């Protein structure tokens, strides 16, 4: 049994206080920075949210009431919910697939480099890239260029997009777009205008008079003479026939015969005309060309931006998950293979459960990230649809500095965004503490 003297106890207590004071001295610069860069802005935002736009009149919680009743803000909250529900899960899933692939392919290093490369690009540059990729014009937007190429591979393009008869020229255009010429005669002329300059094929020859004879014959021609002249609706010299136009002979609602115009625009049906016969050029001849999908429109703008986000962050998820894969015990995987388990069974029942802590870290990190997403939405979404694609961080910026000039409401939105992020951050901290324990 040993006894400590009061003097030695006082000495040890003084040493402990000196150590605490020294520790505080070292921590003080970090505390000052934390207070200046984190605590003070949060406190100031909370206080500012209780005042009006000018900052002089105290309004209490009115700004929060406005935030919860404003349509644009509610749209931003809905979009944030979509982001949180979709983007983190997709980023984690794609990163997991890429990480597993890096263990299966021979050129794993090059693959990792390509997938991780978007992380080296700023969000501004990535937004500009995808603004071009999603462009509605197929000649500029890569995605719509691919969509148009696939569509035109399996569907015939219209022969003369935009062509139409002259008003009052004797041809009727139905609501569906079909151009009809009622006829009880054996000869019919079908003059059209509005043919685009590049749409007239090089094989087009000068329009000729219909051959006549038995059945029904006619000519489809461009009712225009280069340089001027001629008479509307007549086969004047210099007018070109329109080859390749599909023409149908109909009797009532029944199609009797179908043919295609020759190089000089002429066509012929063997069936004789009746009182109810009509010659019809279907709307498919003149339909506007397929232009792809309006990716930057209100319907697809949020999924389109989420796609750009996945492109950027999938490399980050892949690297983190690949690190977790490298530390997995190989014995269990080899034992499963020996027992006859397939690769899918190994992936689903062994790899994924063992990677659960790593996947959780990636997922929660992405949740925190997407809750304050701003730059991609601001850059990719065109002005007219920014409200449809809006998120809380973008709404905060627009209200405070982007023309709204209401820092009171903007501060209230920033506080709401903080309150949404803090629980997820606390969950992440608990996970870190649990992993260290």
TrEMBL record:
Residue ranges of the region described as Disordered: 157-177
Cell compartment(s), UniProt: Cell membrane
Annotated organism of origin: Kitasatospora aureofaciens (Streptomyces aureofaciens)
Protein name: ABC transporter permease
One Pfam family in the UniProt entry: BPD_transp_1
One of the GO BP terms on file: transmembrane transport
Primary location class: membrane
PROSITE patterns per UniProt: ABC_TM1
Keywords tagged on the record: Cell membrane, Membrane, Transmembrane, Transmembrane helix, Transport
